[in-house]
Design a protein that fits this description.
mainly alpha; 0% strand; 332 residues
Length: 332
């Protein structure tokens, strides 16, 4: 006994459902239908609260800062509620000042040194996490998270205690090891030693972010690629350059972009260690803007310096931003 089945024509409606790529039984609104407008507007409505918060918390202060940068504002104007517009005099005075360009160069070098150390050490720690066993990986991850979760001012205070001249642990250890000249060494008494403490602090606080995220990125690499590389006779370094690095390259570019921003705008660590001293030799642009604006009570000048700081930061990150955007376009 045979059963003959006749193939039915699905019709234009079913064909439309299949062409739309949606799951069976779900029809997408056709163009011109009332439901389609609601679906189109839904993503923008969901983004609206975040956009409003961004405008209020970031956009409005930036506008106010821009207005202040064109004013001569000090304690007299504040007390008398005066508004004295001076045009671009604040910008002209800042851009013609040798101190501004000296601090700018110092900030760029400071950022470059810190970012290189953070990315190098963070990458090594992340690769170490990928090689460790589960128990050691958990222990190291907990230590990294605790270092990362510590507030910047709390971490800065700990480092001040460690490198204190009279009762610091670092000086005590160095003295016990035979460097008796370091018994009462003042780590914040010179430009180089002060920057050494600040760099050590910022690198210590930034490594966990790079290491943990890099380890997470390594978990997405298929193990079959390493097996194929091993069959081809690739060693550890060859496997890293041919398999690991191509997968981690987008992460490294994006993380470098973020670290440049975070290190360049670092204020808490630099100011809390020695307030830009000694003799203002460790001031970076954020600290310089604060001291010139709030410290010297010339708020218009401080606002102009802060906006110029943003411009310098955009110039520094534009290259990495172009690379990241170009790579995203290639992936699409």
């Amino acid at each position: 006994m045979s059963v003959t089945t006749e193939r039915q024509d699905p019709g234009p409606a079913a064909a439309g459902v299949r062409r739309s790529g949606g799951p069976p039984g779900i029809r997408r609104p056709a163009p011109g239908t009332p439901g389609r407008g609601r679906l189109t507007a839904a993503p923008y409505l969901l983004l609206l609260p975040a956009l409003v918060a961004t405008v209020l918390l970031l956009g409005w202060p930036l506008v106010k800062d821009g207005l202040l940068s064109f004013q001569n504002l000090n304690m007299r104007q504040l007390i008398q509620h005066l508004t004295e517009w001076n045009g671009v005099d604040n910008y002209r005075e800042t851009l013609t000042s040798e101190d501004f360009w000296r601090v700018t160069l110092r900030s760029v070098i400071f950022t470059a040194v810190n970012v290189v150390l953070i990315m190098l050490l963070g990458t090594l720690v992340g690769l170490l996490l990928a090689r460790l066993g589960s128990k050691m990986r958990l222990l190291l991850s907990v230590g990294l998270v605790l270092a990362w979760a510590m507030p910047p001012i709390a971490g800065t205070t700990v480092f001040q205690w460690l490198f204190a001249a009279r009762f610091g642990v670092v000086n005590w250890v160095l003295d016990a090891l035979g460097w008796h000249s370091m018994a009462n060494y003042n780590w914040t008494g010179s430009q180089f030693s002060t920057f050494f403490i600040i760099t050590l602090l910022i690198v210590w606080q930034s490594i966990p972010f790079v290491a943990i995220n890099l380890y997470a990125a390594t978990t997405t690499i298929p193990g079959e690629l390493y097996e194929a590389a091993a069959l081809d006779g690739a060693g550890t370094w060859k496997s890293f350059t041919s398999v690991t690095f191509p997968f981690l390259k987008p992460f490294l570019l994006a993380t470098t972009f973020l670290e440049v921003i975070w290190v360049f705008k670092a204020f808490t660590q630099v100011f809390a260690i020695n307030e830009g001293g000694p003799d203002r030799l460790t001031e970076t642009l954020p600290v310089y803007a604060f001291i010139e604006g709030v410290g010297n009570q010339h708020y218009g000048m401080g606002a102009a310096i802060s906006l110029l700081t943003i411009a310098v930061l955009l110039a520094l990150t534009s290259y990495y931003l172009r690379i990241v955007l170009r790579q995203e376009e290639d992936e699409l």
